[in-house]
């Protein structure tokens, strides 16, 4: 396997692309701020218009860093799932973790109101939504971990995860059917996904959760490399399958569950970015792939969020739709050009 030094130039280019994408993202928005003024404000100079400083430091920069955390975390969770199941179609949604977060949000926005007649969201706000989605994702993760102790076949675990996703989707559909139009609208807006609604404290909390998931992934690098060679070969290398699988599942739960709780369900990134990254980094070494998919995911998420900002307009397109509209054709083109998936 080729090591990180082989791809040093590629990593430098991606870091440069990340910086450019970050600057482009910060300079974009409903208020037109000249690029030179944006740069001078970043370096501590007073802007021509006082409100520009507030817009840049209190809104655009937290949003840009949220995009980086979300893109990097979702991409890494997709890589972990595809490696664990040795399946190119695996992603953060397959274990039902993201669906569990949606169920938690749906129960808060539609279920409590349906049962009590009072809107919990009205009193508790966005924080309660994040907490409910986190509880939903981790409850599903807990069930999956219990099942993982009993099921030895990873493909069976994959199918069980898909079934959990179907069950949670069915419950959400029932809640939506009986919900009021107002609560249903709130849930639909949450399901669009957004990287612009997090405060600095929420961003720091999300960053801590994602950092823990990344740390568990780094600890599992040896196991991840061994999984690609088959479970029997991994066992012959001294890898504890049960312990390693649980570690990878917990890491995925932290990454996908935490991000979905705070930013809503964002599709496509976790599934596609590992494949896009392998077009550049032709290796199965996870010492290379983990930082590469995180960088690629962060760049893609910044670009998608920039495109979602309609110029000189307060309207923002749903990030969930933009990631799919931008990314899916690129994946199709790459696969047609290469004629196969590199996995």
Automatic annotation (TrEMBL):
Keyword Nucleus part of the UniProt annotation: no
Main location: membrane
GO biological process, any: siderophore-iron import into cell
One Pfam family here: FecCD
Cellular location(s): Cell membrane
Gene3D superfamilies membership: ABC transporter involved in vitamin B12 uptake, BtuC (1.10.3470.10)
Cellular compartments per GO CC: plasma membrane
Topological type in the membrane: Multi-pass membrane protein
MF GO annotations: transmembrane transporter activity
The entry's keywords: Cell membrane, Membrane, Transmembrane, Transmembrane helix, Transport
Annotated transmembrane regions: 93-121, 127-148, 155-178, 205-228, 248-276, 288-310, 316-336
Family from the record: Belongs to the binding-protein-dependent transport system permease family. FecCD subfamily.
Name of protein: Iron ABC transporter permease
Organism encoding this protein: Flagellimonas oceani
